Amino acid sequence: MKQFLIFVQKEFYHIFRDRKSLLIIILMPIVQIILFGFALTNEIKDSDIAVLDESKDVATAEIIHRLDASRYFNVARYLHSQVDIEAAFKTGKIRLVVIFQNKFRENLLHTNHAQIQLLADATDPNTATTVTNYATSIIRDYQNDLTTNTPLPYQIEPQVRMLYNPQLKGAYTFVPGVMAMILIIISAMMTSVSIVREKEINTMEVLLVSPLKPLLFILSKAIPYMFLSLVNVSTILIVSVTLLEVPINGNLLLLMGEALLFITTAVSLGLMISNVTSSQQTAQMISLLGLMLPTLLLGGFMFPIESMPKPLQVMSNIVPSKWFFIIVKDVMIKGLGFKMIWKETLILFGMTLFFLAISFSKFKTRLA
Amino acid sequence: MREAVITANKLTKKFGDFIATNEVSFEVDKGEIFGFLGANGAGKTTAMRMLCGLSMPSSGSATVAGFDVYKQTEKIKQNIGYMSQKFSLYEDLTVSENIRFYAGIYGMARQAIKEKTAQLLNQLNLTPEANTLVKALPLGWKQKLAFSVAIFHEPKIVFLDEPTGGVDPITRREFWNLIYRAAERGITIFVTTHYMDEAEYCNRVSIMVDGKIEALDTPRNLKKTFNATSMDEVFLQLARGAKRSDD
Amino acid sequence: MKQLSFLLEKEFRQVFRNPAILRSVLIMPIIQLLIFPFAANYEVKNVLLSIVDHDHSSYSQKFISKITASGYFILTDYSPSYNKALEAIESDKADLVIEIPKNFEKDLVKETKSSMLLAVNAVNGAKANLGGAYAANIIRDFNQEIRLDWMTFPAFNAIPTIEITSSNWYNPTMNYKDFMVPGILVTLLTMIGTFLTSLNIVQEKESGTIEQINVSPISKTTFILGKLIPFWIMGLITLTIGLLIARLFYQIVPVGNIALIYLFAMVFLLALLGIGLLISTYAETQTQATFVGFFVMMVFMLLGGLYTSIDSMPEWAKWITKVNPVAYFIEVMRMIVLKGSGFADIKYHLLAVLGLAVVFNTWAILNYHKRS
Question: What is the CATH number of the domain that holds C68?
Fold first, then answer.
């Protein structure tokens, strides 16, 4: 036990001696969570649109004004002919072109029928669908207002209630997501690199001939990094609550406990990586390049997993951050208790055991 | 006819409060084997790094091959070779690739490199290993190769920083034979070491203690001055008062 | 210049001796490009729906069959009460709850007005936004149908209507892959470029070989160029592989000029590698370089306009995207590949990235000291 503590102490020395790295590891997650918490949102707003108004009357002016005044649009350009449309799209920023037919108001008043054409830049289909929907409902509102004196009969009024996140803040999704991503990459990378470094500079052999048992040796490597990761979790949570105003609706202890479990999973993954690689560069490449895109794309926080093809849905199950993302969302935002997340917890636990088992089996063969 | 190729005058390097090299002054003559002795941490490497243009002096002056260490480092670099304490060949390149690379960055022509490489490999008995990755070579061979690479472009001066660390006496002997041969060709050798037997091979040695040069003369004169039978004894007498040890 | 050729020869040899680098430059992009575009899909379908029907009328039945027929929703269960439905949301068995009140049909016919409650799980931003909008649209359509059923024709015609037609340019089939494949390709280039270069010089620092270079008369610019060019070429190779996969596997044929993509990529890679080298000159150890590289990479990628829209970002974040070469390249890729934009359309993008390239590389050269 005493030897074990000495080993742990040694690891802490390594960490605290390298001030620059320590600073990076502590500060980076804070900056990232602030940056992404504020900047990322699934909402689409402030899109630049262009208007081709062949009619130029009171009605079109009013509609254009309403579009511009909404939070979704910003009328950036007035086009003069059909020819300009292509050019407006091609220089990049214009997401939607609104075309008013000639004699718009006249037609509307006399024939009760007028036309508006919406052309969306569908290179980004998501934005295209959304801006078309927004523009449509703004125009529909205008149309309804024309008939205010005679309200429409047979009206179904949908009342919309946004549960858990009434303001639809992006941070509610991205804080748990970015947290899962940062934790797994940093923890796995720190652990794998620190072990592989010992291999590279040959101190590993010295450690291996020492009487410390492999299990304790591995633990002594893991503990300091788990500690650092817990520091990261705490700072991320503090920043989320104070700056980003994302609440912790559930039990803080449960949340921290789950975070500790996830960190253990990540550290075990790091151990496993360190056992199959022999150079720092390879270890980093696997833990960074190999984890980054899968976590980002299959972790569930960027893209809805349900919309993916079946094989990818199956594949997403082996991404640990997917499960942690669900847990954080449930505990932090929805305020649920352990009863609702025991399944996810069990899966993370199982993954941890799996990674550790592989690390140990490889570790022993190397000793032989 | 003496001709100084290195001059140092009160050359000093401070790291914060710590004075690594404290006002050292000396001259090294052309063709000389100049030994720079001292315990670990005495400031030898720092002094050498300033002369090579790797480290900016805090104060004092020095010239190498007639060029100023403050302003003309790039000129100095065209005239020197350097072999660092840390092993400096690329482990993932072969023997001949390493030679070609280092010769190339010193501006040698490809044809000249090719001819001289064959000659060198032959001399070192490394011809069969020309296409072996350097990491597969034993340490002694690596060091001989590193030295040969450092003087491959025929510099006026070569700086060797503890070149024989960690190898057996026979290999060290062979290494010194290489040094003598280079000196015969007129290359000035500036070598740091803490092996006192190696000090005996030098024309002149300086002994550094705690950042200062405490003695500078030929090995024979030093032994006479300190009334000692070996350089070991000279060194022990000087180093007894040292405060710094190790790095 | 002659020295540069020796440097390049050495770098290339080292790269080709290192299977890890080759794997990450050649194989990893292929695999990731073949898999991930399928994942990157914002299209919301399969929204899980739980319905609380207190009315059990023919209209409520009609509505339910209409919404389930739309293709966006999967009806998971009928809950007896709103609270039960909320439990379904809690356990992620439902994303959306629609509560049809008692007397829905009666109110609608007699009072000509009725309501419906839509409760959305808004933790999943994308799903909440789109799922809610789809449901609202379906309700509106349903409403319109009922109106047609009940209203007499002349009365209906008296209402002024604006006919809105919409069309989607450049991607009429709304294929996400057309949009995502070029974007993911840029992401991969970014990861490889930043990562490999940021590690490269630090590695020489750690192994000590950099000292040997520093005592040689080689100039700083030559040295940095020697590091830059190999990775620049590898980046272009990765790009070529990526464009081939896009063409053969995803049938994405750039509408615009492919030479223009390469021109932009060349400048883009210079900027990117400049950043990597800059990190490398600052870092003391490979670990530091990787962490900073990871940080920069994440900022570039997430604030690059591929995953969320730059338009929606706060003003200060938009400024960050102005110094983000990735944001420029993703936009330019879209413009050239899907819209067929020409040189005149992208010249400001090109100029901006060129500026960044000059700044980052100059900075890297200035910060690389041959002497401490």
Answer: 3.40.1710.10
Number of residues that this document lists for chain C: 372
> d(Cα C74, Cα C24) in Å, to the nearest integer?
40
Q: In what order do the strands lie in the sheet with A155-163?
A: A155-163, C113-121, C96-100, C47-53, C73-78
* Total structural domains within chain C: 2
Using CA coordinates, name the residue in chain B closest to C3. Answer: B105
- Cβ separation of B100 and C215 shorter than 8 Å? no
pTM of the model: 0.84
Q: Which residue has the tokens 């003369």?
A: B217
Judged by DSSP in three states, B136 sits in helix
C180 in the same domain as C305: yes
Q: Is residue C372 part of a domain?
A: no
Q: Are residues C125 and C193 in the same domain?
A: no
According to DSSP H, which parts of chain C are helical?
2-17, 19-22, 28-39, 58-69, 82-90, 104-106, 125-150, 153-157, 176-207, 209-214, 220-248, 258-282, 286-302, 315-322, 325-334, 343-367
> Chain C interface, mutation test: which of A74, A295, A307, A328, most C Cβ atoms within 10 Å?
A307
> Are the CB atoms for A323 and A348 separated by under 8 Å?
yes
Containing domain of residue B233, as a range? Answer: 30-56+67-239
Which residue among C114, C157, C297 sits closest to A112, beta carbon to beta carbon?
Answer: C157
Q: Tell me whether residues A158 and C118 touch, CB distance under 8 A.
A: yes
Does residue C166 belong to any structural domain of this protein? no
Which chain C residue is nearest to residue B109, measuring alpha carbons?
Answer: C2
The per-residue pLDDT for range B137-193, each reduced to its tens digit, is 888 888 889 999 999 999 999 999 888 877 888 888 889 999 999 999 899 999 998
- How many structural domains are present in chain B? 1
Nearest-by-CA chain C residue for A126: C42
In a domain, residue C244? The reply is: yes
Q: Which tokens sit at A45?
A: 């707003």
Candidate from A122, A282, A326 with C-beta closest to C20: A282
CATH at residue B223: 3.40.50.300
Residue position matching structure tokens 């399969």: C46
Same domain, C361 and C217: yes
C203, C215, C371, C372: best mutation site toward chain B, by most B Cβ within 10 Å? C215
Q: Does residue A105 contact residue A111 with C-beta atoms inside 8 Å?
A: no
Tell me how far apart the alpha carbons of residues B185 and B97 are, in angstroms, rounded to a whole number: 25
Domain spans in chain A, listed from the N-terminal domain onward: 23-40+168-367, 47-146
- Tell me whether strands B4-15 and B59-64 are parallel, antiparallel or unpaired: antiparallel
Which listed CATH number (2.40.30.170, 3.40.225.10, 3.40.1710.10, 3.50.50.60) goes with A47-146? 3.40.1710.10
Smallest CA–CA distance, residue C18 to chain B, in Å, is 8
Cα separations (Å) of B22 from B10, B40, B46, B209?
7, 16, 10, 10
Count CA atoms closer than 13 A to B20's CA, side-chain side: 21
Establish whether chain B is in contact with chain A, requiring a minimum of 3 CB pairs below 8 angstroms: no
Both C228 and C328 in one domain: the answer is yes
Choose among B53, B90, B101: nearest Cβ to C215.
B53
Check whether B135 has a pLDDT greater than 60: yes
pLDDT digits (tens, 9 = 90+) for C88-137: 888 878 888 999 888 888 888 887 788 888 888 887 766 777 788 788 87
In a domain, C162, yes or no: no
Residue-range definition of the domain harbouring residue C213: 2-40+175-367
Are A333 and A189 contacting, i.e. CB atoms less than 8 angstroms apart?
no
C75 touches chain A (CB under 8 A): no
**Residue B12 forms part of a structural domain:** no
Query: Is residue B1 domain-resident?
Result: no
pLDDT in tens, B8-61: 999 999 988 888 898 999 999 998 999 998 877 788 889 998 998 888 999 999
**Residue B246: per-residue pLDDT:** 46
